Structure formats: C-alpha cells, structure tokens
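Milestone M4 deliverable, item 7.
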Amino acid sequence: MPECGLITCSQKPVPLRGISVDVVVRGFVADVVSELRYQNEEKSPVEAVFVFPLDDEAAVYAFEGLIGGTRIEARILEKKKAEQEYEDALAEGREAFLLERQKETSDIFSCSLGNLPPGGEATLKLRYVQALAPEADGAVRFVLPAVLNPRYDPQESAGKGITKLIPRRSKGQLPYSLSLRATLESPYAINRVESKCTLTPLNYVAQDRTNAQISLAEGHQFDRDVELLIYYEEIHKPSALLEMGKTGAASGSLMGDPALLLTLYPSLPPSKPALNAAGEFIFLLDRSGSMGCNIGGGPNSPTRIQSAKETLILLLKSLPLGCYFNIYGFGSHYESFYPKSIEYTQQTMSESLQRVKELDADFGGTEILQPLQAIYRQPFQEGHPRQLLVFTDGEVGNTDQVISEVRRHSSSHRCFSFGIGEGASTALVKGIARAAGGSAEFITGKERMQAKVLQSLKRALQPAVTGISLHWDLPSGLEAKVVGSGPRVIFEGQRCLIYAQMCGQHQSSGATEGSVELQYTFQDQTIKETMKFPLQAQETGRLPVHLLAAQTLLQELEGADEEEKRRLALETSLSSGVVCSQTAYVGVNTELGKPLQGALVRRDIPLALSQGFYSAPMPRACFLKKCVLSAPASMMCASPPRFHSSGAALMSFSAKTTVDLSPGLLGVQEDQEFDSMEKESPYLSLVSLQNADGSWPLGTGLASILGLSEAEISSKTPAQVVPDAWATVLAILWLHSNAAEQMDEWQLLEAKALRWLHATAGPQLAECVKAGNTLLGSSVSLQALGL
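Output delivered:
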C-alpha cells in the first residue's frame, strides 16, 4: 500500500511580513512587480528561503533589494557562479539575496535572503512579464499563483524535492499578507473584471473606458490563487506592437533590434466533424490520491476524480463512429482499458462506460512518464491521427523529463492537457501541450471541467491547420526574422502570438508601415490573412515584447539535448536578463561595514495548505483499518488523503507510526452512503443512455427522466417515425429545456444525434419537434436545432 503522510505545521518565526504586487495589463501582456517585505525579529541573523510558483510562461527579468537603506541591483549570472557568490557572501557575514528557478521545472522559483541582521528590514523586488491567453468566453485571464502543491518524486529519484521541505499553515494562519493593485490598459474598451477573490470596484481612469484600476480588497491572505478575468470589447481584433530595442544593446541582437508582436485570430471556416471521422483518441487520466481532493475547496464541490469521470462519460459519448480509442489510468503504476486502441462501437463504448464509473483515486503517487512511454510504444492505426488528452492535477517532480518525452514524439500526435485544481503545474500542463501542438486548459474554483474538455475535443476533431507561412512586405533594408519556430498549429478561437526581430535599417523615407501575410492550408483550402503595422517603434520602458520573445526562444532551446542549443540558451538568458534553468540572479551588499557575527539561522517561509485538501471525500480504497504514515511527507493528497477535524490542530507523526483509521474514528460515510453521493444527475443519466451512433433508445430509462410513462411516449409517436427517432428528438428537446447551461458540454452529442436523425427521419423532423414540444411542454425552435 502506498504511503501517505502529514506535514508538521511549523511555528518558527517567519521574517516575511507582506507581499505587494503591482500589475499592469496591456491587452494580452501582463507586466508584474512583486515586493517581498522582510523583518528579522530574532536575536540572530537569519536566512529566509521562500519557494513560490510562477506561471510557466512568465519571463522573470529583474531582481533588486533594499537592505538597510542600501539599494542593490542583482546581476544575472550562470547559476553555479551565482550560487557560489551568494555562499561566499554568507560566509563573509554579508547580506545577500539569490533568485533561481528550480532545475526540473520552469514554474517553481526560490528566493533566498541571507544574513538579515537582528532587527533588520529588507525589501526584495521581483519583476516579470507574461503573455495572457483568452478563455472560451473571451476573458483574458491573469493569475497570480499562490498554491504550490508538493510535487511527487518519481520512484527512481532521490525523493528530495524542494516542495516537500516547505512548511505549511492552515487557511488564515499565514503570518504575512498580500496586497495587489492592477492597472488595465487596452486599445479597446474594458467591459468588466471578474474574480473569485473580493475586489474593490472597477475605477475607470479614461472616459472611453480604455484605462482602469482595480485592487484586491483588504485582508486577503496569500492562501489561494488570485485570478482576474478581464473582459475587453472587440477582443477578437488582431493587433501589432513594434517595440524599440534596448538602449546600449548591440545592433543585430535580439535585445538591440526592434521587436514585433503580432496577436492574431485567424478566421477559420466552420468545420463540423464527420459522423465517421478518423482519429485515435487516447485519454490519460491521473488516478493518484490527490485526485480525491475537491476542485472548488468546499465540502459540496465535486472531487477531481468525480469531475474527471463525468467528463470521460461525455467524451465517450461524443466520439465519432469508426474512430479508435483507449483509456489509461496512472499513479504509482498504470493500467489501460485495452492492450491497444480499439474501434469505437456500441459494444466498446458501453463496456468502457461501465469501467469509467468504477474508477477511483486509488493509484498512489503520480508517475506519468511510464504510461506516456507505453502509449508511444503502441502501433499507430493507419489513417487515424493520434490525439492524446491528459487529465492531471500536475504534481510531478520530473516535469522536464516528461515534456522531453512528449516532444520526442511530437511529429506523431497532438496533445491536449488539462490541469485540475489550484496548484496544478503550469510547466507540465502547458509544456506537454506546447511540445505536441495542442492546447492547455486549467480548471479551478467552481469551474466545470466538462465544458473546457469538450471544447478541446472539438479542436481535436478538427483538421489541423498546416503549411503555416509568413510573407513580409517591408521597406528596403528591413528584414523580419521570426523568433523561435513560429506557430505550428492554429485552432478556431485561439489567440496566436508571433514574435519577430526586425533587422537592418529602414531606408525608405516615405514608407510608414509594413505588413505581413499569414498563409496556411485548412481542409484543402489556402487561406490568407494580411495585417499591417506602423514602422514607428514604441518606447515601452520595460521591453515586454523583447522579454517575451526571449522567453519563447528559451522554451524551445532549453528542451533540446544538443550542447549548441544549450549554449545559445545561456547566452540568450544572460543578454536578455530572463532567468532560465542555467542562470540565477544574485545581489550582495558590498557596503556592509562590519560583517555580521553569530550563527546563521535558516527560516523557510510557509505556504498555505491548498483549499479542498481536507474536504475531499474518502476514496473507497481508503476504507481501511490501518494506514502507515511517514514523516516528513508532502501535504499532497496522496493515497489515501490526509484528514483533520474541523478546528482541530494538524497532526504530526514520527516515521512509520501506525494509526487506526477506521471509518468510525474518521467520521467517514459508510459504503452505501458513499454510493448515494455518486448518483448521477438526470442530465448525466440522459447522456449515459445515448447510443454510439447518436440515437437514444425508447425505454423506461428515458421515460423516467422525461417524467412520462413509456406508453405515453409511444402513443404520441408521429406517423411513419421509428420509436428511437422519436425518443432521440425528445432527448434533444429535454437537453435544450433542462440543461441549457451545459450546452457547451453536449453540443457534440447533439451533432451526432441530429446527423442520425437526418438519415433516419429527415422529412418528419419538423413534425417530430412540434409534437415533442407539445408532449414535453417545451418551446424549442427549429432554428435552435439547426433545422
């Protein structure tokens, strides 16, 4: 049985007093300044170590400190040199600070402040920029991550992951506070801002609503992610920004030349997947113990595994006839439903549906590399492009290794990934999608997983955009070089960012603008989009376009095994100031008159226990009499999850302590009560009844959901209409009338059903809809059904 554990809640003094964040969001780019305020109230000098998450796409480009009234600007150096300089400073009794990215992942940073004297104060200031992506409803999403779940260490690792060393505090017990102020700037009017955190009212600075300010309400603790959903008007308009190069940087270099950012929304022709669409769909589901945690943080919110199971049911019902599929579950080990992908038929769908309902979060840790390797060893189905959909809470310790494995097979499949719950690794979830030309989604708070996943399945069912090329029209003497490999896949409704270095000198005095034509092939059609941009470069102060271009290049170079590319990555990091795995920032107070005396005391800054951690229902696998607990252990909801009573202090155990975990002591529901919690909603029950070809059978199950008897339904069947066609019309009408809020989830189901109806009851469809509305008391129009 896999081990589970509890982490002792450290009550040692915490020198971090507060975090202040100032963010400027310009369109799709966020420029962030984060200040960490420290005060040492102990009698000895301390070293404060703060490990925190950042988004995988954040480009950290500056670090400075104010210590004892002295401002110290950190330098970016090769990591080993920076670490040595920091250690030397500590040994000499000098104040110093170090910022570095963790080796195995790009979304965890550590900040060390050493030799802070007794009574001393210090402020460390971190700067980064980040490109923001729109949500399905058009909102631009900015997240300040706070939740850092311990990353599971693979079996072959030494088990010394840095996240396991972080002390944790219960909600409301963090000794430091957070304040955040956001300034929003846009060429388009700002409609509104939404958040699951409490905000001050939106304050418009400009009459045209293109400039606004908003803040977190006072009293917010840094115990959950801060998310801002910014709604612009005319969000889908493409835009271009040409930014001047860095003063003093060499001409011909990325930082010295002007840089162009193109934000594009290609208008793809509508594409509906065919009834017998080709494809091999492999679903890789995280079944580790942490999937037993709640998504929303409250006792009434679904667990991650429950939501994932419901999503898999919808996916299975949405697949087209004739495709191939398989389902893998992974944790400390993995297993698949079938030895290899099988054809999607009524029988295989029904068998898989039953097995999905029996899944649980009972596989222990999070070993994702082995199942990926097993999937890639499977032979391909000729004529069926492989699509991989990965569901995980993203708590792994070998992120870079996993991404490299996906990248090695990127030419043979597309990968769509879904990060579940706060704290999911953005490096893992975004990294594997980026490596294999797919898309990444995150499900947090009260969001339903199903809508986002089904949207991605729609993309997976679309033909991929191919033959993407850029054709520039620039004045003589000016040349554009795309930074990185450029866009590989474009989906309908997705924003596409392209960075280009503008080389040479503009020699035509009359030309004031340039243009670029994006050309690609989609469903055997050649499509072109032209975009113009002014040649007068803007001065943007912090060079966000250059920094994001450097980050894009680094993401590609660091994933390569070639020594030459690693060398180029190091050069790019040092010249741009954007931190990578090979570099770090270090600052030393060289003006200290007298070296500090006394033993240096290390203080690790605590983080919050993630919400929903203890409120997760107990998986069936955890109804055991005994469980071995180990210390020190991660706070990850490993199998089985950890528990505490409301208001009770966290328990800590010595190594290999045996504890009685009988249901009576834990207050856990009995098996039959647990089963009642998992009963399907009428909506999901209706979905479960649908056949693989899209039809619904007329029977007692459907009649019960409709609130009618089977005889009543049969007696109202229109003439010359087969019973299953009549039942299918009624099922569709019920969905429109009773599950309209979930329409994004069942649109593919409806599309299958309507195709089947057109082939089965085409001439009578309008009559069936009219009769169905009369029987159900609904008023769904023919237009709503696309008829």
